[in-house]
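Pasting as-is:
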Amino acid sequence: MNYKPLYKKFGEHVEKLRREKGYTQEELAEKAGLHRAYFWDIENGRNISIKTAYNISRALGVSLSELFNF
């Protein structure tokens, strides 16, 4: 079985949505009120808080449930 942690899948999905919307990491990090380096960590599988996930969903213009739909 090819197991991948939830936070790794989440980071990959955030990156996919970000690219679809045409944002750079820096642009989306700013919209979400996050530091660019921290945002890079998120896309690379850092475990994050639900508050951070909510801020990212608002910055992407998607619901929190859509953000976790991967």
